[in-house]
Amino acid sequence: MRQFGLIGRNISYSFSKSYFAEKFKNENIVDAVYNVFDLKHIDEIENIFKTKDLVGFNVTIPYKQEIIPFLDELSDEAKAIGAVNTVLIKDGKRIGHNTDCYGFHHSLEPLLTPDHKKALVLGNGGAAKAVYYILDLLKIEYKIVSRTKMEHHLTYDELNEKILNEHQIIVNCSPVGTFPNIENAPLLPYQFTNERHLLYDLIYNPPLTKFLENGQNHGAKIKNGHEMLVLQAEKAWKIWNNLTK
């Protein structure tokens, strides 16, 4: 039985396990199983690598960067991004890939209009790095917003009407608003969002986060992270099974 899975911390809520269970059932894939490996510390990954018949696994918060020293190779995208969300075990080698960038790219691009010239990216973790990579690819200028003052970053306190008018895309890469803390939202001046804005939340649970709801209430276009997750999961499956199409 081929083994797949997800590593992360506090991930019992995971989308991936139910998604792949449904996929295996619908596509009559009977030689594979997908498990959740909840790790308190990244060092525990060595025990996961000893799993019999392990083909590959996904990586989520907070290990997308911490996993890298435990790998033998990185794909070009993973190397450029500096974060890994998919690992392939091939010929005894541990190869890191990033399919978050694929999922974000193909779920964002259909929503873009000529108005969408600049972006604010909320957060600077592993998932955010895939977002930076795709915004660079799409030639969309962006500013990173973080809670603490850092060089070339904005803080939430600095956001004002002028900045929001200049940045028509706002991408939430922070965990703020994830279930069960669904009443929370990044501290933005949402009153300055309007129909020219696109608010994209990498969170998928709940489907309508407070961040998205606040933007929607001011006429903004909104998108949650569900399609991105599906696209990145399918891309990971292709990598694990050496499928090119």
UniProtKB/TrEMBL annotation:
CDD domains: NAD_bind_Shikimate_DH. Keywords: Amino-acid biosynthesis, Aromatic amino acid biosynthesis, Oxidoreductase. One of its GO terms (biological process) is aromatic amino acid family biosynthetic process. Pathway: Metabolic intermediate biosynthesis; chorismate biosynthesis; chorismate from D-erythrose 4-phosphate and phosphoenolpyruvate: step 4/7. SUPFAM superfamilies: Aminoacid dehydrogenase-like, N-terminal domain, NAD(P)-binding Rossmann-fold domains. This is Shikimate 5-dehydrogenase. GO terms for cellular component: cytosol. GO terms for molecular function: NADP binding; shikimate 3-dehydrogenase (NADP+) activity. Pfam families: Shikimate_dh_N. It comes from the Bacteria. Residues 6-87 form the Shikimate dehydrogenase substrate binding N-terminal domain.
